[in-house]
Structure formats: C-alpha cells, structure tokens
C-alpha cells in the first residue's frame, strides 16, 4: 500500500467533555499499527497515551467501535487516548496536567505508527497525524477577572443576555485560582464564579495575614447572585475537597448564602462550625501523627479525620441543610476519608429528617481528584502546603480505568443534577 494512512479526528474543535471520533483509513487489511496521542503542556512537559490496533478487511479502524489490543489502555475505549495519558518517559515526577489559560485550547496530536510499539515514539517516524483542539471555553463565553468587595476570582458568562443560573466554584487546599471547571460550566450555560481563597502553595506573594472566613464566601455568593445576568434564586455551590467543607458550612451556618442545590466532590463535613480555614489547617497540624506514607514516601492523609468524630462540635450540622446535595466520593481516595464521611452525613441527615435531600455517588477504585471527564488520572503528584510552603507528594489514589469511568459518569450526573435543580436546559454550544 503506497497510500499514506488517513487519520481523521472529529470534532476538530470541541469541548473538553465531548467525545471525539477517530478513524484511520487507507491501511492494508489486517495491518498492525499504533495510535499515539501527545499533549505539550503549558508547563513544557509532554503527556502521551497509545493503543495497539489491527485494521479490518477494508484497511480501516474506528476507535469508537474497534478494540484496542493493548497499550496504555485496552478494550473498547473511545477516549482511552486521553484518559490514559501519562508523562513521557524521562519527565519530571509528580506532575499534574491542568489547564491554566482557558482562553486557549488543549491541543492533542494523534499519530499513526507502524506495528505495535510501546515506547520511543519520538525516534520513530509516524505514518500520518491529525490535530484536535479541546476547549474549556465554548465560543461566546466571556471571562471576567473579578476583584470586588475584597473577593478575588474569575467570572465566566455564557453567551446571551440570560438570566442564567449561577454556580460558585470552590477548589481545595492547593490554593490559587483554578478556572477550568468554571469555564466548562459556563460552556454549559451557567454563570460560574471560580473563587480564590488561599494563596497558591508556590506563590511568591506573602500569605495574607488573615485567611478569608465566612464573610468572604458570603461576599462572593452575593456578587454572583446579584449579577444582572444571574437568576438570583438559582445559584448553586460546587466544592471539591476543602471546598466541600466550605460549601457545607455555608449552607448550614450562613444567613446570606441560600443555595438552590450543592455539589460536593471528595470532601467531608468534619470541620468546626466557624468556617475558619486557619483552624482547619491547625487541626490537621495537630493530627499530623496520623499521616501515613506509602513505600514511595507519598503522603496518605485520609486517617487525619478517622475515626469520624462522634463529638458534634467537630462536625458541620448537615442535618440543617435545606437544599438538594449531590455528594461524590472515590472508593480509593487516599487523601481524605470521604466514603466514611458520606456514611456519617447520611446517618446525621437521616436522624434530622432531611435525608431525602442527599444523593451519594460512590465510585469504587476512584481517587481523590475527580476532575472533568477524560482528564488523565493522577494517582500522585506534588502538592505545596500553602500554610507551610512545604512541598510533598500526595497519594490521591485511584486506579486509572475505574477513576476515568468515575470522572465521566459523575460529570454527566453533575450536569443532570444542576439542570434539574436549577431549572436549566444545558445546551453545549457548537463550534
């Protein structure tokens, strides 16, 4: 066969949570070949995945329908070339692939190589390649930096006049301003405010003397609720890790924050009632003897809050929650005791008579970092403790295939939950 293989990826431009279709044609019948994906990250690292395939009698393979025989993934996996990505051999260790500039796409290069190969892709010449752009921000979404009423964050506005439902998006103890999830939610029709409440661990700026408390989050919620493009009675809270504890605390104790619903990922209700972040870190420091390390010296924090306290003063009074709550846990979360927390929350809400508001999604084999779909599974990575500026490697947990399933399934269920409770029809904007 003198004709070069033709590789097509559709869509050429799409949202990060959209499935793509990869078709390879003009191969010889029964030809063995390797599909390879490559991302050059903003941190100047390379991430790759690869799958071994055999073409059919027509010299064609459709990745969405045909079996991968091995590689960084195997089986019928339309998106395996994304979720099974790892850094290329020889890379720096402890990395995490995260989009910083959401105004530019993630560019994925898909290449075809002869035979079944598993390494040395850089040295091999490819038979053909295609490029696809994966976006967090759909066309027409506006990004607005927010520095108002003491609140720091980024607001993402869907195209059109609205009013739209709103989502206050709170990340975890790693600090900094993380925008990509809020950008993606705006692409689904929500005005989303990614709020910064801790300095990034590696920030050169001196940490603020006073870390934000309840009033900071109340100001952020109010800014979002009062925005002219937001339906003021249709605002949700979304928290991951420490952001979950803050979301729960606001829903229980704030007289200002009245969410229509809440999504909590990989977090816990084990926190004192005063929403004091310094106290939260001080409590962790007090219990640092409970931190374990694995054989690679990666930190396991989940025991810090175990056993789940019986003293009600050490837990948020989730029995007072008045809105629907979607609580998502990974069964192999090594960072925080989220499964045990979910059980206790269920018990507390049962006793208080508001159990009907709780939906728990539990994913066996998923770790702590449950991200939007098709993000590479990060089992461990460098983590800068924002309070002490100490660099450690955290064991987040998870098995790649199960974790990837959890990311895809939970995201679909998050969108459905938000649609249902915020009276919203989520339409992806087409490119």
UniProtKB/TrEMBL annotation:
<feature type="active site" description="Charge relay system">
    <location>
        <position position="368"/>
    </location>
</feature>
<comment type="similarity">
    <text>Belongs to the C/M/P thioester hydrolase family.</text>
</comment>
<dbReference type="InterPro" id="IPR016662">
    <property type="entry name" value="Acyl-CoA_thioEstase_long-chain"/>
</dbReference>
<dbReference type="Pfam" id="PF04775">
    <property type="entry name" value="Bile_Hydr_Trans"/>
</dbReference>
<protein>
    <submittedName>
        <fullName>Acyl-coenzyme A thioesterase 4-like</fullName>
    </submittedName>
</protein>
<dbReference type="GO" id="GO:0047617">
    <property type="term" value="F:fatty acyl-CoA hydrolase activity"/>
</dbReference>
<dbReference type="GO" id="GO:0006631">
    <property type="term" value="P:fatty acid metabolic process"/>
</dbReference>
<dbReference type="Pfam" id="PF08840">
    <property type="entry name" value="BAAT_C"/>
</dbReference>
<feature type="domain" description="Acyl-CoA thioester hydrolase/bile acid-CoA amino acid N-acetyltransferase">
    <location>
        <begin position="17"/>
        <end position="147"/>
    </location>
</feature>
<dbReference type="InterPro" id="IPR042490">
    <property type="entry name" value="Thio_Ohase/BAAT_N"/>
</dbReference>
<dbReference type="InterPro" id="IPR029058">
    <property type="entry name" value="AB_hydrolase_fold"/>
</dbReference>
<dbReference type="GO" id="GO:0006637">
    <property type="term" value="P:acyl-CoA metabolic process"/>
</dbReference>
<feature type="domain" description="BAAT/Acyl-CoA thioester hydrolase C-terminal">
    <location>
        <begin position="215"/>
        <end position="423"/>
    </location>
</feature>
<dbReference type="InterPro" id="IPR006862">
    <property type="entry name" value="Thio_Ohase/aa_AcTrfase"/>
</dbReference>
<dbReference type="InterPro" id="IPR014940">
    <property type="entry name" value="BAAT_C"/>
</dbReference>
<feature type="active site" description="Charge relay system">
    <location>
        <position position="333"/>
    </location>
</feature>
<feature type="active site" description="Charge relay system">
    <location>
        <position position="241"/>
    </location>
</feature>
């Amino acid at each position: 066969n003198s004709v070069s293989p033709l590789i097509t990826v559709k869509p050429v431009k799409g949202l990060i949570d959209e499935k793509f279709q990869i078709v390879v044609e003009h191969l010889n019948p029964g030809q063995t070949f390797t599909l390879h994906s490559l991302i050059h990250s903003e941190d100047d690292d390379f991430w790759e995945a690869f799958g071994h395939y055999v073409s059919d009698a027509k010299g064609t393979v459709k990745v969405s329908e045909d079996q991968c025989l091995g590689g960084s993934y195997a089986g019928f996996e339309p998106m395996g070339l994304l979720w099974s990505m790892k850094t290329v051999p020889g890379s720096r260790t402890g990395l995490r692939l995260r989009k910083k500039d959401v105004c530019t796409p993630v560019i994925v290069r898909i290449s075809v190589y002869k035979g079944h190969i598993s390494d040395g892709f850089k040295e091999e010449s490819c038979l053909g390649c295609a490029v696809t752009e994966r976006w967090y921000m759909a066309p027409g979404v506006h990004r607005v930096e927010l520095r108002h009423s003491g609140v720091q964050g980024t607001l993402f506005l869907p195209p059109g006049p609205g009013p739209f439902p709103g989502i206050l998006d709170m990340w975890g103890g790693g600090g900094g301003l993380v925008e990509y999830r809020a950008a993606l939610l705006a692409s689904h029709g929500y005005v989303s405010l990614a709020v910064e409440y801790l300095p990034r661990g590696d920030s050169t700026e001196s940490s603020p003397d006073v870390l934000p408390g309840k009033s900071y989050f109340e100001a952020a919620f109010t800014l979002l609720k009062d925005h002219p493009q937001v339906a003021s009675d249709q605002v949700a809270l979304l928290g991951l890790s420490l952001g979950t504890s803050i979301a729960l605390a606001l829903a229980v104790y704030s007289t200002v924050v009245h969410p229509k619903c809440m999504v909590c990922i990989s977090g816990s209700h084990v926190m004192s009632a005063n929403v004091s972040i310094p106290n939260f870190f001080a409590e962790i420091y007090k219990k640092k003897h409970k931190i374990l390390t694995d054989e690679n010296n990666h930190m396991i924090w989940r025991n810090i809050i175990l056993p789940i306290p019986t003293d009600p003063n050490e837990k948020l009074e989730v029995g007072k929650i008045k809105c629907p709550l979607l609580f998502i846990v990974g069964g192999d979360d090594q960072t925080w005791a989220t499964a045990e927390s979910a059980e206790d929350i269920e018990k507390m809400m049962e006793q208080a008579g508001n159990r009907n508001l709780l939906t728990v999604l539990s994913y066996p084999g998923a770790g702590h970092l449950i991200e939007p779909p098709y993000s590479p599974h990060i089992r461990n990575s460098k983590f800068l403790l924002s309070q002490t500026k100490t660099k450690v490697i955290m064991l987040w947990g998870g098995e790649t295939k199960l974790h990837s399933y959890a990311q895809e399934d939970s995201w679909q269920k998050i969108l459905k939950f938000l649609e249902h409770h915020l009276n919203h029809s989520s339409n992806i904007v087409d490119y």
